[in-house]
Write a structure and sequence with these properties.
The complex is a heterodimer of chains A (304) and B (234). With 304 residues, chain A is α+β, with helices and mostly antiparallel strands. Helix content of chain A is 72%, strand content 8%. Chain B has one domain: Rossmann fold, CATH 3.40.50. The chains are: A alpha+beta (304), B alpha/beta (234). Bound molecules: adenosine-5'-triphosphate (ATP) and magnesium ion.
Chain lengths: 304, 234
């Protein structure tokens, strides 16, 4: 009886402000989709970090003929310098950190450059001598890069020692900023969703003020009076967050896996497993948000 | 049963108190008329007993509850022991007579079985048999007040508060409502009724409490609407 009665009241409330309920559904849907997308982006960044950090190496660029005298006083690196660097990499202190290293001469560097900048005007003008000879060093633990930077940085004939991860960090910080922006927008939208839920609930309470007055007169408990309103907000928000959860799963299934993964085959992307991690969290956030917003709204409206 | 001591009620933003140093005690089973000019404080007194308002100063004890200190979450349970009727009936227009009465039981969590048994009983008691499926706008004023009374007493309250229950009804209809309220009183329910109806007060010869400007100026058993010319005051 009690349950049937409460459900009847909820259905009536939802019917009475259809347009407000629809707007609550849409706003929670859109805002939680943003939250979910931000979450997906974070997971994707994590995945890419793992993938690229594993492949990142340290480049020891040797001096070329065109490098300024300030960093390369003795001009282009000769065989003696290559030998010195090689010996250093092979020395007992450094060898323990190094997984492997390779030497890339002018010709190989030129070949890689031409591949990378195919169709770009710069590919035409560059000559093999302008591209530095390089030792590519792969570390056992990528976090130990500082050791190589320090021991080879000051070496004569070495133009620069560069950890490739420093380029990656730049890219990741841009991606991070993008996902933070998404989180910011999502927070704003969640805020407006909260306000909208409060307004809807208060409107619903206003349209039922006669019933509310009588309920209080005959001694209905506060909980009993408030429950239909809180559930009304929760029902609307749940529909919205289920839609958002569906959207997140759909984005991963059809856009990330169905399109991106096909187009950009050399990169690894998040999968449905990640989406199913985020989807229930979204529904939970939506329900919690609605519960808090609608109970505080009805509490203020009914302050006894 | 109802004990009001040195109660002063001042509404926010008003200079004069609606009730000023009022002391009143009502015993179980009593029938009390509250009379007095418009604005004298009758409705304010009733809303203090109902705990719709709290006094600015003084004590209000009803059915063993200290209504100044009672925590707000207990107020609903306190109100279940009271029945209330007003001049404007306060029925839900989109519910039938039966549904209106059932509503007041549903919201306090009574079982379906109890409701299905109690509602026809109380409809018979107030003389509305066969009209359970009507909507309030299909009833006369007197019938609407009977529905309101049925709703007020269906939960067998210890006290019935009535604020001008016959205010919108003609003489003959008022008589019907009054004999109903008297029967409720005879069954053991304490009745406190605010009214402007001289004929009713004079005929019933019950206890009369007269208010004027927020103060009790007369409290008389077997009294009439106006104070007697000489003496009669207590
Ligand atoms: N909610 C309120 N806020 C402010 N002032 C109020 C409020 N309710 C009543 N009053 C004032 O308190 C005084 C007493 O009002 P009350 O309603 O108790 O009178 P009453 O005896 O019931 O009058 P009536 O016979 O017209 O119903 C009046 O001056 C009124 O203006
Ligand atoms: Mg009044």
């Amino acid at each position: 009886m009690r349950l049937g009665f409460i459900f009847g009241e909820i259905a009536q409330g939802l019917k009475r402000n259809v347009s407000m309920v629809i707007s609550v559904i849409l706003v929670t849907f859109v805002s939680l989709t943003f939250v979910g997308t931000a979450g997906l982006l974070q997971l994707q960044i994590g995945q890419m970090k793992g993938y690229w950090y594993d492949r990142a190496q340290i480049a020891v660029y040797l001096c070329t003929a065109i490098d300024p005298a300030s960093s390369c006083p003795q001009g282009a690196a000769g065989n003696d310098i290559k030998k010195a660097v090689k010996e250093k990499l092979d020395s007992a202190t450094i060898k323990t950190y190094v997984a492997s290293f390779e030497f890339e001469d002018h010709k190989q560097a030129y070949k890689h450059f031409q591949e990378q900048f195919k169709g770009n005007a710069v590919a035409k003008y560059v000559t093999p001598e302008q591209l530095p000879e390089t030792f590519w060093v792969k570390l056992k633990n990528p976090n130990d890069s500082q050791i190589i930077l320090e021991s080879l940085g000051g070496q004569a004939g070495v133009f620069e020692v560069r950890d490739q991860r420093s380029y990656l960090d730049q890219i990741f910080s841009i991606l991070n900023a993008a996902s933070l922006a998404a989180v910011g927008i999502a927070a704003l939208m969640l805020f407006s969703a909260t306000l909208l839920i409060s307004t809807t609930i208060r409107l619903s309470a206003f349209s039922r003020r006669r019933e509310l007055g009588i309920m209080r007169l005959v001694g209905a408990s506060n909980f009993y009076i408030q429950l239909p309103f809180i559930l009304e907000g929760i029902v609307a928000a749940t529909i919205g967050s289920l839609l958002a959860a569906g959207a997140v799963v759909a984005v991963v299934q059809f856009f990330v896996q169905g399109y991106l993964a096909q187009q950009v085959s050399y990169m690894s992307f998040i999968g449905l497993g990640d989406a199913f991690l985020i989807a229930p969290a979204l529904v939970l956030v939506g329900i919690l948000l609605a519960a808090v917003a609608s109970s505080s709204a009805i509490n203020r409206y009914l302050k006894i | 049963m109802i004990r009001i001591e040195n109660v002063t009620k001042k509404y926010r933003g008003t200079a004069r108190p609606a009730l000023n140093q009022v002391t009143l005690e009502i015993e179980k089973g009593e029938f009390v008329f509250l009379v007095g000019a418009s604005g004298s404080g009758k409705s304010s007194l009733i809303s203090l007993i109902l705990r719709e308002e709290v006094p600015t100063k003084g004590l209000v004890h009803v059915l063993g509850e200290d209504l100044v200190r009672i925590p707000s979450r207990r107020v609903p349970y306190f109100r279940r022991k009271l029945g209330v009727v007003f001049q404007d009936f306060r029925l839900l227009p989109n519910k039938t007579v039966t549904q209106n009465i059932a509503f007041s039981l549903e919201v306090i969590g009574r079982s379906r079985g109890l409701i299905e048994a109690a509602v026809p009983d109380v409809l018979r008691l107030v003389g509305l048999e066969g009209k359970g499926d009507r909507y309030p706008n299909e009833l006369s004023g007197g019938e609407r007040q009977r529905v309101a009374l049925a709703r007020a007493i269906v939960n067998k309250p210890a006290i019935l508060l009535a604020d001008e229950p016959t205010g919108n009804l003609d003489g003959a209809t008022s008589e019907g409502i009054m004999s109903l309220i008297e029967r409720i009183n005879l069954a053991g329910t304490t009745v406190v009724m605010a009214t402007h109806d001289k004929a009713i007060v004079d005929r019933f010869k019950k206890r009369v409490v007269e208010l004027s400007g927020g103060e009790i100026i007369r409290d008389e058993r077997g009294g009439s609407y106006r104070a007697a010319e000489s003496g009669g005051e207590s």
